[in-house]
Design a protein that fits this description.
Radius of gyration: 25 Å
Largest sheet: 7 strands, mixed
Strand content: 25-35%
Low-confidence stretches: 1-15, 18-27, 101-107
Strand order of the largest sheet: 2-17-18-19-20-15-16
Shape: elongated
Length: 418
């Protein structure tokens, strides 16, 4: 180990080894004493490197330093660029000279050390306080049948979660550590090095070969590949947000992972994790980026979903009934659709409905999201609209944003999907 890395690796976050051992993912005792088994598990992808890190930390907490040393050495033989493993190795080397109690009081001030501390905290927090995988993120209220999977990015805890659409009910599949923008989240302008908050969709896949042809040497920054997101969306544009090129992507091949805040605004995962996640991603896969996840029991989730469905159904019913007054009552005073504001929108709808004798409106392929936003409580609804009336029939894909006003929801945006 170089002198600079030894300097970085002499300590971890204060109290890291003094916390109670994690119950969620401890390496079996027989494997602790057989690093060859750990090596085989890593090579066969049966063990995630993060699991080995957690097992090593648990061993240190339990004063089984030899076991911890074997685990870390085995991990480094397979992941020689895993900096967090080097950090633990440095701690174990220091333990030969002095007890590890009170680690975190190093006199060194080093940005790399701080990055590693933050990474260690984020990774270990996942295992010491695991998420309730039988609960459902409040953001995923309804997925349409074509959306086989959905991604929820918990920007505050540096964790990405994948959910499967089980007949409309999101079911936990897996989760990964990930990195967001250097300056955090809530992107507002081009180049601000922040990750946006909102609901986005995978627009395609750029494998490494395509990145090499398009970006040359810069392609190394994206590792195994990139999955572009639909930022900015219509709500971002309505709020005046700028920028582009927000992706899910890997990292340079000489890097296993990075600090929780290290990208220019994208969501970055280690290359093995990005490759694993990429197996589930298709164009149209929803990606929700939120400051934190509100976990709901299935009963509370069902109640929340039913309430959102009722709001949409009330709008549809009043429109179909040609009750123009009640129909327009669903729109907020600050409603806009592109450059069209509420007064002009109302005038158009009054004129159109006056010429109708009847209307039938059906909504299909519905997806509903509780939208993460700094502008207040929002709901986003996407659907296929089948509109038939006495003088017009058409189908179109639509999107509505509802904003809570006191106890009511009002539509603040309506537009067609491309």
């Amino acid at each position: 180990m170089s002198r600079s890395w030894l300097k970085i690796a002499v300590c971890l976050t204060a109290g890291l080894y003094l916390a109670p051992a994690a119950n969620s993912m401890q390496w079996p005792q027989d494997k602790l004493l057989a690093p060859a088994l750990v090596q085989n598990a890593l090579l066969s992808d049966k063990a995630h490197p993060e699991e080995v890190i957690v097992a090593a930390v648990n061993a240190i907490r339990e004063d089984r330093l030899a076991d911890a040393d074997q685990l870390v050495d085995t991990l480094l033989s397979h992941r020689p660029n895993y900096r967090l493993a080097h950090l633990l190795k440095g701690d174990l080397l220091m333990a030969r000279a002095q007890p590890l109690a009170g680690i975190g009081s190093s006199p060194f001030a080093d940005d790399k050390l701080n990055d590693l501390r933050e990474e260690a905290n984020a990774r270990l927090q996942r295992h010491s306080a695991p998420p309730p995988t039988d609960a459902i993120p409040a953001n995923l209220l309804q997925l349409d049948p074509s959306q086989r999977y959905a991604v929820v990015v918990d920007a505050g805890s540096s964790r990405l979660f994948l959910y499967r659409n089980d007949a409309g009910v999101p079911r936990y599949v897996l989760d990964f550590y990930m990195t967001i923008g250097k300056l955090g989240f809530d992107k507002s302008r081009e180049g601000d090095q922040r990750t946006p908050l909102g609901v986005y969709f995978i627009t395609g896949h750029m494998p490494r070969e395509q990145l090499d042809k398009t970006y040359g040497r810069l392609a190394e920054l994206y590792g195994v590949g990139a999955w572009p997101l639909s930022y900015p969306n219509d709500w971002d544009r309505q709020q005046g947000r700028t920028g582009s090129g927000i992706w899910l992507h890997g990292v340079p091949y000489d890097t296993y992972s990075r600090a929780p805040k290290a990208s220019n605004g994208c969501v970055a995962l280690s290359n093995p994790d990005m490759a694993a996640l990429g197996e589930y991603l298709l164009p149209g896969t929803p990606v929700v980026i939120t400051p934190s996840i509100e976990w709901l029991s299935q009963a509370k989730w069902q109640a929340r979903r039913s309430a959102a469905q009722a709001e949409l159904e009330a709008w549809r019913r009043d429109w179909e009934s040609l009750d123009t007054r009640n129909y327009l009552g669903h729109y907020a005073s600050d409603f806009r659709s592109g450059k069209t504001e509420l007064a002009e929108w109302k005038a158009q709808k009054v004129a159109v409905n006056a010429g109708k004798q009847w209307a039938k409106i059906r909504l299909g392929e519905l997806s509903l999201f509780s939208y993460p936003s700094s502008e207040g409580d929002l709901l986003m609804a996407n659907f296929l609209q089948d509109y038939r009336s006495s003088n017009l029939s058409n189908q179109s894909k639509k999107r509505l944003y509802f904003k809570r006003e006191a106890r009511d929801w009002r539509i603040v945006y309506e537009g067609a999907l491309g």
